Amino acid sequence: MEALSILSGILLLLLSGAQSHEPVLSEKLIRDISNYSEIALKIIDYSLTGPGANQSYNRLATFVDRYGPRLSGSSNLEDSIDHMLYLLQQDGLDNVHGEEVNVTHWVRGKEIAQLLEPRSAELSILGLGSSVGTPEEGITADAVVMRSFDELEERKDEVKDRIVVFNPTYVSYPVTVAYRVNGASRASKYGAVATLIRTVGPFSIYSPHTGMQVYNSSVPAIPTACITIEDANMLDRLERAGERLTIHLYMEAQTLPMVISRNTVAEIKGSVYPDQVVVVSGHLDSWDVGQGAMDDGGGAFISWQALSIVKGLGLTPKRTLRLVMWTDEEAGGIGSQQYYQRHREDADKYSILFESDEGVFLPYGILFSGSAEAKAILQQIGQLLVSINASEVYDNGGGTDVDWWREEKVPTASLANHNEHYFWYHHSNGDTMDVLDPEEMNLCSAVWAVYAYVLADLDDVLPRG
Amino acid sequence: MEALSILSGILLLLLSGAQSHEPVLSEKLIRDISNYSEIALKIIDYSLTGPGANQSYNRLATFVDRYGPRLSGSSNLEDSIDHMLYLLQQDGLDNVHGEEVNVTHWVRGKEIAQLLEPRSAELSILGLGSSVGTPEEGITADAVVMRSFDELEERKDEVKDRIVVFNPTYVSYPVTVAYRVNGASRASKYGAVATLIRTVGPFSIYSPHTGMQVYNSSVPAIPTACITIEDANMLDRLERAGERLTIHLYMEAQTLPMVISRNTVAEIKGSVYPDQVVVVSGHLDSWDVGQGAMDDGGGAFISWQALSIVKGLGLTPKRTLRLVMWTDEEAGGIGSQQYYQRHREDADKYSILFESDEGVFLPYGILFSGSAEAKAILQQIGQLLVSINASEVYDNGGGTDVDWWREEKVPTASLANHNEHYFWYHHSNGDTMDVLDPEEMNLCSAVWAVYAYVLADLDDVLPRG
């Protein structure tokens, strides 16, 4: 493009900007938000170099080192919730309590997969959440490898009495996770006896990743587990080379009756509108592998940290700042759904719900779902975070635990952070404290605290659509 | 620095260059080497887009998928050598044979480590090569965590009857590997009952890496295994938090009597000086985890490929081009040492030995050990590889299997390649075909073939120091 064209392009861009229909905030609201600039700097200092520095990382390390992973239904999870309630009380927060909910109780038990032909080799597996187990003697069957559901349809006549190995190329988590979630029933429809699904992720060092799967009730429930990317590719190559694949699979997995767990709640009570709330949240449960440090210890602990910072600075917002650490997110937001059902009648008192469940790496802003006017308010608040390069507001905020509230048009938001490697570790033994960084968590906590405090202290709850 | 200073600096540099004492090759030798430019281009084309394209990768995948990892003393290794001899014969190479050597026979057996206190957790381990096992009932003991040998010396009074966990920060492989190699005996000296060593590597997704360790015969041999970086850090944090660590370790590892294995040899017999040789090599044995694809299937197979390319192009060099796939490198070059002892009397007939055992990633040249004059010859040959950006010649070439020959002043060389992630996978279950790339292996094969062919075809063997 020539120089003149570039110049006219810029002019057009400027003109189109001037003609846009973005909501214009009132002078007063802009001034009100700008007035928080000193408080925002205090929050940032407190979190980066003050008493809050490295606090969320260190608290989380102590917590996950002590309790390990926290699967719904496990004593690990309930013990960790007991301790969390103690910690929140020790931190001097208000109204610390657990809200009881019914949660799933799936247990993995022992599990083994062995390649018998064309050579003997152990295959590292992780059974998928809600999977049934095998018979006591296990399942020994020949295997077929399918790279896609399309290939399954084309080769459906080869599937009966076979173990189906799915080896789809990773496109993105939301796209490729379909194989993990639906693979078992898609193959069972044609008579498969078990499925082994390539781990849903972009990179692996021979690490299988578990996760939820869902049976279609119209076909038999068959055992299903994930295997590593490396083994999926190896089995694929062997099949294409004409080798007969025989696999032995043994899984003790079973689903037990639901049990009672708790969403963990703590607050800083609002000084003027105590019934109105801003929620910051993450989930305390995790898969039963690794430490559940990243997913979602990090999100839960920066949310706690947001309240700790506000309290540590002696601030009391006009409305209530509520921390919720959800339970049984991993089975599909089981705890948060019951919270929503119980509290939805108060939807007009919820200004916004924040959830961090996609990493607490270097933050660069937030993602938001709500009205254009509400977004403009968040963008204005974002200006208070320019000094830490976290001022951007993107669309499509939310998360499994807060998206329920969209039905009531309550705004939701999540943390925009450099989580490019999130799916390297997600739902695997690699989800440990080594993935996280104290300074990045300090920054995330500051972002979370600035948004949460300012929104809890403005004159009004956020406008709906 | 000011502009005038920069200019005078450049002038000084030019002058010092002009005054250097680099060896000057004869006009004839420069011309002789330049005359290979057409052949070099043919080799490159053959390897990148011709019949050799992807051949080394595909051959290796078929091989490691069929045999898996190939630990010294295992039937896997011997079966794979049998098949390798068949493949080399099928490839039409000369003098295909196995040269018998005595090799180590260490077997891993079952192995388990469990953290009992302060909480119950499985610790993923890999016993270290040559380690003894535990008693049948295992070892249950409290653990102490040492970040360095210095700390061990300072805290030596705390070590008796304890399991010592070493958690040294990774500096580099040659530096940090001291903990894996000597950690057990260093701790045994002060009465430790076992050692768990943090995996020697810069990055992990909860993947333990095995490797060789060596007992000091003056202290009791105690069981020793590596643990993941993540668990080493967790145990370290727990100890610093004042927690008592109790670990149960069970290992069946044992060293059996040495057995006979083979170095695998194939040649393109020289047309003029058949008794003189250029050796290209890698090792066929591997640790008993992953597929031994990178370490060192890749090195062995690009070495084979070098001969395949030369043969495929119908070329016959003046002296013999010899492929050696060493056995039992992993225990310290056991197979290659015996080869050296058997053949060292012919050292003057060895022009150079190449070994690729540090990855077959994107190549950018070679590393060389030998006289300045020999290096100048290799630099001149490197000019034939400018078109694929692999013309550089660095110092300090060689490898475990060829360094023996330095005693006889025979030049050695290895492959300079972008192996920055080599130690992410090395000696772990992550060492699979997924780590390698067909096009990178094409380039490595071309580099290997050009150097090997030209050096085998020049009038003289490389000059000694």
From TrEMBL, chains A, B:
Native organism is Amphimedon queenslandica (Sponge)
Q: What is its main location?
A: endoplasmic reticulum
Q: Which GO terms describe its molecular function?
A: carboxypeptidase activity; metal ion binding; metallodipeptidase activity
Protein name as annotated: Carboxypeptidase Q
Q: What PANTHER family does the annotation carry?
A: CARBOXYPEPTIDASE Q, PROTEASE FAMILY M28 PLASMA GLUTAMATE CARBOXYPEPTIDASE-RELATED
Q: Which residues form the signal peptide?
A: 1-20
Taxonomic classification: Eukaryota, Metazoa, Porifera, Demospongiae, Heteroscleromorpha
* UniProt cross-references to InterPro entries, sorted A to Z: CPQ, Peptidase_M28
Which terms are listed as keywords in the entry?
Carboxypeptidase, Endoplasmic reticulum, Glycoprotein, Golgi apparatus, Hydrolase, Lysosome, Metal-binding, Metalloprotease, Protease, Secreted, Signal, Zinc, Zymogen
